[in-house]
Amino acid sequence: MSVSTGDLLKMELIANNQEFRQLVQEHKSYEMRLGELAALPHPSEDELLEVAQLKKKKLLVKDKMESMVQVHKRKAASH
Fold it and tell me: Can you tell me the distance from the alpha carbon of 79 to that of 64, in angstroms, rounded to the nearest whole number?
């Protein structure tokens, strides 16, 4: 299995960028909580609302991470 350039950039950012590491952890925590909520047989209205909010937060974090990858990629290409 080969590692993509994007994966390499993410690994580099995880190793060298505290903000990116925090975003990765935040994304993982949202993912875990969404998994917990998805396992509920009959979620309450509050839990359904939490799912919607977590999905939005997770997407925002993912977009921010992708933006950081793109900035890093442009900087690497200019050197």
Answer: 23
> Token pair of 18, please?
């505290």
Domain boundary assignment for the chain:
5-78
pLDDT tens string 22-70: 999 999 999 999 999 999 999 999 999 999 999 999 999 999 999 999 9
Q: Alpha-carbon distance 64 to 59, whole Å?
A: 9
Q: Residue 1 has what pLDDT?
A: 57
Q: How far apart are CA 33 and CA 38, in angstroms?
A: 9
Structure tokens at 31: 């993912």
What global pTM score does this model have?
0.88
Q: Is the dihedral of CA 47, 50, 56, 62 positive or negative?
A: negative
Beta carbons within 8 Å of 69's beta carbon, 6+ residues apart = 6, 9, 10, 13
